[in-house]
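Regression test attached.
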Amino acid sequence: MAPNRGLKRVLKVAAAGAAAALILAACGSSTPSAKPHPTTAPSGKPAHGGTAYWAEAPQATPNWIFPFSSLTYFSVANLTQFQYLMFRPLYWFGQVKSSNPTVDYSLSLALPPKWSNGNKTVTIAMKGWKWSNGKTVDAHDVMFWMNMMKAEKANWAGYVAGAFPDNVTSYSANTKADTVTFHLNRAYSTNWYLYNELSQITPLPINWDITSAGAAPGSGGCSSLTPNAKTLSDCVKVWTFLTDNNGKAKNPTEAADLTTYATNPLWQIVDGPWRLSAFTTSGEATFVPNRAYSGPQHPYLSKFVELPFTADSSEYSALASGGAGAPNVGYVPTQDVPQNTGPIGSTGPNAPALKGSYNLVPVYGWSINYFPMNFHSGGDGGNAGPIFSQLYFRQAVQYLIDQPAVIKNIDKGYGVPTYGPVPVFPKNSFVSPQESKNNYPYSLAKAKQLLVKHGWTIHPGGISVCKVGSKCGPGIKNGAQLNFQEIYAGGTTSIDQTVAAETSAWSKVGIHVSLRSETFDTVLSTAIPCKVGASDCTWEFANWGGGWVYSPDYMPTGGEIFASGAGSNSGSYSSTTADTLINETHYSSSLKYMHAYENFLAKDLPVVWQPNPANALTEISTNLHGVTPINALLNLTPEYWYFSKS
Amino acid sequence: MSAVNEQLATSVAGITPPASPGLDGALQGDQAPSGGEAGASGSLGRIILRVFLENRLAVVGVGILVFMFLFCFVGPIFYHTNQTYSNLYTSAGVQPPSAAHVLGTDPNGFDVLGRLMYAGQTSLEVGLAAAAIATVVGVLWGATSGFFGGILDAFMMRIVDVLLSIPALFLLIILAVLFHPDKITLIFILGFLAWLTPARLVRGETLSLRTREYVQAVRVMGGKSRRMVTRHIIPNAIGTIVVNATFQVADAILYLAALGFLGLGVQFPQADWGQMLGQGEPYLPNGDWWLLIPAGLCIVLVVVAFNFIGDALRDSLEVRLQRR
């Protein structure tokens, strides 16, 4: 559910789309490191107290506290690294003792869902954990979310038409308010529904069900256990009160008023292990423990502080210089670490300036990396779209991506290959044997052969030309040129290097790609699905450098990025075969459907697969423990962190 | 546009520094400046050249420029390097200096010495062309405004004032983002901003020159405005124009470097010195000096050289004006 860019992952569109059912691999040992991460093992006796400082990604500061947000605020910085500390989702994904991206019921607010009626009904029993004001986290709170989602689905970034909550025909709570039941429009894969649909729910406290400050909790009418049409209209009013309607409504502005995040009593009602005690508009957030937290681990630390940085170089300087305010957990830019010669997932030597005071821990997210071509593009004199629609052309492009070389020479050994829609690392059972290997290993000869065979005259270093239109493909005219433009998110050394290497390789067969550096946000907003012939449908290649992180669409069924017409199907790829295979993954839990889907897409190249660099090369202060293993879904759990007694 | 230009503006406004003792001989016997239609004068040219050459910094400046032009435009003929295709598939990008690469390699694996030459071509071409555009536009604008005066002058100068009130770098960044610059676009973007200063300077000169007797004489004899401006006003403001142009080149190179450093300059695989600095900056903590110091040195040397030359030209051309 998220185009991501390394440290600056941005969750763009939410999940729901596919249905299938697989269980994440046994993943028993999901980090086959050459040597164990240095701080993984607990060290010494945990000391209670102390302040831990954590470095935010450069220019990625939290700016939305209400855990129901539109695309604008749907980022890792806001969700998993800010809101989740205070407001826990119904089901928690990612393990504490491993980097498996699987559900962790011990940290969830509800018991495992129970299925009935031929997998058309799912019943969720709440655990009875407490909010910080003493009230129980119960069915009211889940109904509040569901009612809000029904009323304001256009403002929920995770919404995909036809999926959650559209696939819920009715939902209700029992009178004791400890159980919620969902009736679905058909039978679904139980795992897919849990990992990609129920995963979106975050119970909201009744105290937020108001339309004016100081009103009685629940007076807003949005948390009704028996929702009707009036409930939904009430929810709109509550939503308007809790948000500022993206700046359209001036008052009230509860969630948009950053200056009151730490003082507004609404946001002090939490069910997570932390509550906010201070917040600056520049993005510095200070958390203190929520003493009423019902979960298994209460914080050791007395304070947890998130520090903003404008650039990774300034953050690195703060790490290297040390001092009282230096981050205990930060990150090192790729260019500043020595080469890692170990296998995928291993840890190499640390940067000399940090050795001794910090331990290096690379973090690999539950993600894939790719960039789209626009199948509907009117660029290149109208030839771009028809050329991209030809599998042989996409294969030629893919054959010239040397993934092992990029990982070695650009990512310094801290990257994993992407061979298809399912991440190959951390190890999981979703990935098929075929997708685990490179279907298109680097081959200049094969790329050249494909183009020549299909009527192109190759001009190495220049621009190849279509000489035989009938061979080049439908819609491709004689004289058409392989001359394109790629917009990419510039400014990050490894991305700059990767696009330079790729375009250089393509030029060897006369695929001329001129580069245009843009901001990350500009690339994302340009690379959107568009219609053939539309005036703004001329972009050709778009590379934001980060592909997609599967969160909270934790099962990598890919419907939201590869299904025909999906909102995040940037390049407008469309294949009836792919659509059928995707749907089968939504409806059945059998692994064979997942493998069939990924094997097809790995070869059909809906996008160009490229290496996936480590999400972050994390640096952890040697006196801080319990930080690792780091959650593959990038959820922060500082309640497990501690300084040891000396 | 720069501190140097401010200094120049003060100078042309009439607060000219006293002639140095060395100039006395050259001025001996000369009459007061007379003006008139511009014409060539062999002896005058020699005097200007002599005064110019007496300024040692100016000579150093010329030497630096000659060297840099040879380095950037002739150097690649003898020092062949690939500056187009990254070789990151076969080797790591940044490599320290070695026998194969005298100044090491950059993040894309390009030979840094060759890259300096390649990037220097862009920096010098853009700097010179942008200055040329700025000078031509600025001179015509300023001369027209100052010569005709009145409402037209007020209108034209308010446009200049408005544009000058916008921080140049801010405007440059916006334009660069909007137009996705290549070399030609950058020339026009920089020229678009740089013409304001010469316009203002020439307008001031014109206000003074248009009241001179020789201009009045042309007017009385029925000379057209165009002739007065092109044959009498502009030639007699040539000192101001030429000196300013040298500073315009230096300023354009600096602005190009700033844009390049911010990633808003020319696009890969093209390069300019500022872009090289921007690419090298993340490697600063590693002590990879060859990614920063050579490019920085090139920028400093060229800018200083143009400033030296500008200063010397001001002195030399002042001699010319005084002689007249």
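Expected vs. actual: identical. Chain A touches chain B through 36 residues (CB under 8 Å).
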